[in-house]
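As a warm-up, study this chain.
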Amino acid sequence: MDQGSGTRLERLLRAAERDLGVAVAVPEGLQCPIVWINERLLKRTGYERNEVMGRDWRFLEGKETAPEASGLVAEVMREGKALSVDLLCYRKDGTTFWNRIRVRSIYDREWVLRYFLSSHQALDESRVRRNPVISDEREPLHEKWGRLVWR
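Now compare it with the structure written out below.
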């Protein structure tokens, strides 16, 4: 994905990198392989970039991750909706952390789903929400995200 100099997406990703872990995935069947990830999320999870690229986000799940919440994320992504959910996730070393995952579906001019943009915020347990937030809000790339060049 070539983000181009100064696009809205590029500016958003730079701003988000200061505070949030961010990943971009592409919809491919039942999997959504990661095609871009920022350093903040790599540091938070303990993984190297080459261990994450091409993998589905579910690599952060473990035995204590709520399967119903994980299944909901996959379902909402298949439907192209927006979602915010708090999940217990696992670092590479096996330690856990609460992760507020926000997923947005990104569409092109013809309303073809192109990307999933996810932000990941580490939480302490007192801030964890027990109920996910789902939205039908959809964003066309050409209106809100600037020009992207597809490879």
